[in-house]
Every structure is written in C-alpha cells, then in structure tokens.
Amino acid sequence: MRAAGKLAAALLDYISGYIQPGISTLAINDLCEEFTKKNGGKSAPLGYKGFPKSVCTSINEVVCHGIPKAVDVLKDGDIVNVDVTPIVDGYHGDSSRTFIVGGKTSPEVERLVQDAERAMWVGIEQVKPGNRVSDIANAIDDYLTPKGYGIVRDLMGHGIGRGFHEEPQIPHYRSGRKLSKLEPGMTFTIEPMVNLGTWEVIFSKKDGWTVTTRDGKWSAQFEHTILVTEKGYEILTQA
Ligand code: MF3
Ligand code: CO
Ligand code: CO
Fold first, then answer.
1. CA–CA separation, 82 vs 107, rounded Å?
2. Strand 193-195 and strand 201-203: pairing?
3. What are the extents of the domains in the chain?
4. Contact, 45 vs 51, CB < 8 A?
C-alpha cells in the first residue's frame, strides 16, 4: 500500500508540471499512463468496469469520473481534477488534486478549491482508533455546510487495498447515523466532492461515467488514501 501510495503521489507531482492552458485531458492521460508504467505500476482505472482511460480528468462542473479526450483542452481559469490510482504489487493507491489552470481563476472558485482541500484535511484529522467513520463525515460537513457549499452524497470515499473499492463507504456528509469504528490497519480514502451550488449530481447516460453538478456550478475535490495506525493515521499517498 505504501509503494502504490508513493507512486500516486509522484504521479500527481509529475503531472502538475503539465497542467497549463492548451493541454488536452487526453495528453494528461497519456503522460500519466507512461509515467505509471515506467515506474512499475499499472493504471487501475483502465478497463475498470469498462472505464476507457487510465486516469479521470474532471473539468469545472464535472464532479468526477471525467473521461480524458483530445477535444477537451484546458483554458486559463478552468479547474481540473486529476484522479490517479496506480496498482503496485497488487495494491491500490488512490489520490486526486484539483488544479487551477494558469494559476488564477475567480475569487469564488479559488475559495472553492482551497476549501475542498481543507475539507479533506479536516476529515483526515478525525482518523484514529476508536473514532468512527461518522466522525470523519460529520467534521467535513460541519466545515463545509456553514460556508454554503453542497457536499456530494451519491459518491463517497471507500475502503481500498487489493480491491479498488472495498468496504466501508466513507460519506462526507452528516447522515445522523453512527457508522463503523476505525481500527488500526484499515485503509480507505477520504475524497470530498464540494460544489458551489447544490449537492445533486447527474450521471451521464451518454458515456456511462461523467458525473456533473445538477445546476452546472463548479465542483472541486481532493483525495488521499489513509492508513489507520495505533496512534492516528498515516497518509499513504504522500511522497
Ligand atoms: N479514482 C476514483 C475514486 O476515487 C474512481 C475512479 S473509477 C474509474 O474512487 F473507473 F472511473 F476510474
Ligand atoms: Co477513491
Ligand atoms: Co480517486
């Protein structure tokens, strides 16, 4: 898990240097695929339940699972989430970041991206034995909801290991339910999807993958794979 996580981190560091106006999401995909192979990994998304590419690239109002395409060319002020999941020796490392194309966008969207990253950390800070999955969800909700954001409910963090998506699900919103206890050795992702408007999303019927906000407002996301330790947590998808 550490090896896969380190490769995910290196891959996002590597691709960050290419995120600029004029690059297509297909070019991003191809660079990621090449880097992953060169470093002894395999791209988990490629062929996963029929997903056609090696990474997900989600622009502006696309929440997640965007399919890289030659015609999708990044513009100044866009935001793009690149979500990578290399497999190393049979284990998965799942991580994503949202980049601001050209480094500047509207103040509202800059705040969205910052708050989405902070929300992930607020969730991570809850990870320790004895706490519950619901403590992660509630902390993220308490951070985001007063700021007026919509927190996506239909997609969640997840257990991860030999499988890409394992039990338990990790919601990022308050459900009012007491969810499972965290125990040392568990590995899962925290990956809040944060919307400027409504939490509601649309699943594309056309390509079967692309998830967009129902109201067309923009959405940002950050993701890490986390290990629960005796004392707290270890971020696996970090250099
Ligand atoms: N990486 C995504 C996640 O965070 C899952 C992508 S599934 C794919 O769970 F098939 F679209 F790649
Ligand atoms: Co994930
Ligand atoms: Co992911």
1. 21
2. unpaired
3. 2-235
4. yes
Say if CB 111 and CB 98 are below 8 A apart. Answer: no
pLDDT, tens only, 15-73: 999 999 999 999 999 999 999 999 999 999 999 999 999 999 999 999 999 999 999 99
| Whole-structure pTM value | 0.98
Give the DSSP H/E element, type plus range, for residue 10.
Answer: helix 2-16
Torsion of CA 213, 66, 171, 98, to 10 degrees: -90
CA–CA distance from 113 to each of 77, 182, 196, 225, 228 (Å)?
Answer: 12, 28, 10, 19, 26
Partners of 87 in the β-ladder = 42, 92
**Contact 72 CB / ligand 1 (< 6 Å):** no
Q: Which of 56, 81, 204 to mutate to test the pocket of ligand 1 (most atoms within 8 A of CB)?
A: 56
Each residue's pLDDT tens digit, 209-238: 999 999 999 999 999 999 999 999 999 999
Fold classification of 2-235 is: Creatine Amidinohydrolase (3.90.230)
| pLDDT digits 0-9 by tens, 119-146 | 999 999 999 999 999 999 999 999 999 9
